[in-house]
Write a sequence for this structure.
């Protein structure tokens, strides 16, 4: 777990698009921040800068006591969950969950224990031998979350993780993410354009508009002062 400090961050894309301008957010250890705002307001760009998938044009981002601007994405100790799952199609659920830990040379007993814990939390125990194509959309999204959880990262970054699911499944997965959040208390940044998702999950909401922070506060503060 770690705090995240986003300090006067800006992004100008080649060609001159100012995607993010002067954004500062202090995220406490264990806090769940939701980024909301209309399409094109800069949510994804901001998240990707924290992840190290996009260079930062100005300002700085720290995770814990490390300034990460110059840290390789692989060394940032964050895990991302995407809407398109990014699972390995030819591997079983178990192998999808275990892959990253195996690559890092974790001992077999530790891998088994972490995979079992994640599978239990996400109700994936009956499916560990299946390939992703034999899973439902919701189950696939649980495997994607499981891959993030087994890493025990300092922070989770969610990029519209539920937007490919049908409405009913979105509601139930929203509840599951809320439960995981209560259990794990991992510092999180969650991007969505779904207001209910934002209100349900956020400790604090950050409303972006044209690349700048328009409002920041608890869901009650934000939605009672529109
Ligand atoms: P959101 O996630 O809120 O929809 P984005 O961060 O994707 O917003 O985009 C913010 C702005 O930056 C938009 O105007 C978008 O067109 C622009 N943008 C995003 N990615 C690129 C890119 N790779 N090159 C140039 N402009 C981009
Ligand atoms: P896996 O792709 O299964 O996680 P690795 O952990 O070996 O396997 O991935 C290589 C590097 O890519 C890791 O060191 C890690 O920092 C980064 N990485 C892997 N998965 C994620 C993720 N979900 N979010 C962010 N970074 C990741």
């Amino acid at each position: 777990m770690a705090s995240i400090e986003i300090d006067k961050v800006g992004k100008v894309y080649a060609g001159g698009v100012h995607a993010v301008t002067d954004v500062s957010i202090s995220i406490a250890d264990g806090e769940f921040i939701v980024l909301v705002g209309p399409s094109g307001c800069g949510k994804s760009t901001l998240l990707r800068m924290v992840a190290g998938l996009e260079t930062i044009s100005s300002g700085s981002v720290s995770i814990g006591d490390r300034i990460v601007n110059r840290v390789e994405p692989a060394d940032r100790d964050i895990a991302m969950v995407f809407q398109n799952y990014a699972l390995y199609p030819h591997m079983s659920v178990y192998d999808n969950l275990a892959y990253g830990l195996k690559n890092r040379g974790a001992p077999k007993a530790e891998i088994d224990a972490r995979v079992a814990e994640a599978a239990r939390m996400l109700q994936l125990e009956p499916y560990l031998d299946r390939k992703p194509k034999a899973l439902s959309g919701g189950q696939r999204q649980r495997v994607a979350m499981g891959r993030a959880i087994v890493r025990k990262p300092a922070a989770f970054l969610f990029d519209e993780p539920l937007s490919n699911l049908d409405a009913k499944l979105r509601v139930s997965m929203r509840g599951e993410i809320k439960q995981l959040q209560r259990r794990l208390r991992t510092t999180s940044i969650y991007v969505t354009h779904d207001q209910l998702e934002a209100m349900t999950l956020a400790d604090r909401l950050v409303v972006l508009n044209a690349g700048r922070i328009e409002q920041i506060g608890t869901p009650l503060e934000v939605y009672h002062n529109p």
